[in-house]
Amino acid sequence: MSRRESREPLSKDAVRRLRVKGIIYGTIPVIIMGAILFVSAGTLNWPMGWVILGVLFLATAIVTLICSPDLIMERMNKQAGAKDWDARLVRVMNLIGLLPLLVAGLDMRFGWTGQIPLPVQAAALGIFIFGYGVFSWAMLTNRFFSLVVRIQNEKGHHAVTTGPYRFVRHPGYLGFFLIVLAQPLMLGSLWALLPAGITAALFLVRTGREDATLLTELVGYREYAQEVRYRLLPGIW
């Protein structure tokens, strides 16, 4: 298919099918996460486990129904031009990112942490939902929002400066940073904070590497970085 043909608008039926496919695609990780949670916990009677899966599914479905078809295809299909270092880092992050769920499930089964006060869990749930809100806002604002670090020259890639990008340069990572750290407390596990902390640290590494790439390769990004000082954590970094 030529580049011109690939940019032709999709029919309404094609867009509808694409959105359904996108929801199914996004639900697969939720199912995997649920299997890890409940198998390691040894029970399905875990309300907060169901809450976390419900939030994940709803967030995935809503964003997929709202975002552009081009963004769905960008995130579903393997794209050329991804940085090798990022591909390796993502594989590590995907693996380590599942460990908090495994540890939280085992903690639920064996009671390592004990009872975390419900208000603490509720506050963590609020942070978790807020984090997904920030992540979703960033995705809906940035039509170049990709699963991998790559310069999308074929789409006229440029720096995005609206929405949450007015406050930090990588709001999508900020959202996931909050999600990762809130998740263990939401699930009632202090032990799960250990692998969650490692995952959060990897997000810092990825943010730094991606930011350096964009500074040198993306049109308009250096000027944008002079206006928005902070990469991930407002007022800190």
Give a quick precis of the structure.
With 237 residues, this protein is mainly alpha-helical. 67% of the residues lie in helices and 0% in strands.
Please describe the topology of this protein.
Layout: H1 3-6, H2 12-41, H3 47-66, H4 69-76, H5 84-96, H6 99-110, H7 118-141, H8 171-186, H9 193-217, H10 221-227
Protein architecture, described:
The protein is mainly alpha-helical. The chain has one domain: Four Helix Bundle (Hemerythrin (Met), subunit A) (Up-down Bundle). 67% of the residues lie in helices and 0% in strands. It has helices at 3-6, 12-41, 47-66, 69-76, 84-96, 99-110, 118-141, 171-186, 193-217, 221-227. The protein is globular, with a radius of gyration of 19 Å.
CATH architecture: Up-down Bundle
Structural class: mainly alpha
Q: What is the end-to-end distance? A: 43 Å
Oligomer: single chain
Please trace the helix and strand order, writing H or E for each element.
HHHHHHHHHH
Notable traits:
0% strand; 237 residues; disordered N terminus; mainly alpha; single chain; Four Helix Bundle (Hemerythrin (Met), subunit A)
